[in-house]
UniProtKB/TrEMBL annotation:
PROSITE patterns: PROKAR_LIPOPROTEIN. The keyword Transmembrane helix does not apply. This is Efflux transporter outer membrane subunit. Residues 1-19 form the signal peptide. The keyword Ubl conjugation does not apply. It holds the Pfam family OEP. It is found in: Cell membrane; Membrane. It comes from Roseateles agri. It is a lipid-anchor. Belongs to the outer membrane factor (OMF) (TC 1.B.17) family. Gene3D superfamilies: Outer membrane efflux proteins (OEP) (2.20.200.10).
Amino acid sequence: MTQQRVAGLLAAVLLSACATPGHLSPPQETLKGAAIGLSADNAAKEPALAERWWEVFGDAALDQLIDKALQDNPSLAAAGARLRRAAAAVARVESNDTAQVAARFDATSQRFPEHALYPPNIAGTHQEIGSLQAGLSWELDFFGRNKAALEAALGSVHAAQADAQGARLLLASSVTRNYLQLARLLEQRRIALRTFEQRSEVLALTRRRVQAGLDTAIELRQGEGALPDTRQAIEALDEQIVLRRHALAALAVQPPTAMDGLAPQLLALHGAQLPERLPADLLGRRADIDAARLRVEAATQELKAARADFYPSINLIAFAGYNAIGLNRLLEAGSEQYGAGPALRLPLFDGGRLRSALQGRAAELDLAIAAYNGALLEAVRETSDQIASLQSIARQQEQQDLAQLSAESAYALAVRRYEAGLGSYLIVLSTESAVLIQRRSHADLLARALDSQVELMRALGGGYVADALADPLHARR
């Protein structure tokens, strides 16, 4: 009876000394849609943007360029490698729920002491000890440690899948934006060439007027100074055109000179019909937000796994094999050994290692929540900014169209007056300058509108659908 009391008291002391998780502060809160101006209804059935959203611009060369970039760009290869790494981690964690079988063979040459608990025929002799054994171990996941670790690993895989889709969207939008900027530069160069021709005509007319005594050398010098300025502007445009072509070649994994003949026509590109208000249902289809959400879920499961480390670990173990003193007798009858039974491990004194690990997981969860909140706020800002920009550009285009119509009308009137002998050609060239300025403004505004459309389609997720993530790992469970 006394021994039982001592054993019970000892057990109570040991259990009271077990490692405990201590107190953890509650995790941060994820932002709710209503708090940042989003609708609670977030369940659109079909994506509003097509997966190949760039085809709305109606340019076959752009389509081919993006296809080439999506096939060969190294950034996508890196995203694929990260996805495979995450999948390998899932397979490693899954193995914890299966029986582990191992075989081992040991051979040791040993002298047995004479003054120890060995029989006389062994004491003081030099013997070889051999062991050939197969062992089995199977951890019983009573407290959900392995399940939580597996869910965390699966969440990381799905986050990596979302990251890969986000990398594809970023690459496609980069190609499209560079392509549109190249089209803008080429249109600006065409207008600059016409400006150079016009200024050359003005200079020739000024020379004739000076010879006729109608102008002075001041007007002549002003006309001569305008030509180098225009040549410099054309050269600067040529530089930017070359750089844009080099950028597109790099994105498509081609030599820098591969795009030398690429010449998109800005005025031939089509625009896209996009929402005029913040579409809350599409923000949930952004790959970066979905990846951040999945990482929050993975971090939550990792915290659960860290908590489970404080509970007992229960294993079923079994072994069978041979053990003998003398390798020549290892496989003889009588050298067999086998056994089976449960094994229980309970952390008692670990110097705070488990508690520190738990606190680290809690901090990682807070970091994941902060990253999710930041991604959501950034998505709302990006989408709102692009919608506002598109609305403003549309209003600017309306006013610019009126200004260009006025300039074109003045130019047509000046031409008719000149043809009728009622006005000078200098006035014709002067009014054409106003037309060229308006055409440059038109090209800039059109390029800005198309670029903002690309940015808005990127901000809306580019047709990404979270439910479409491949899930072969869950099927194996």
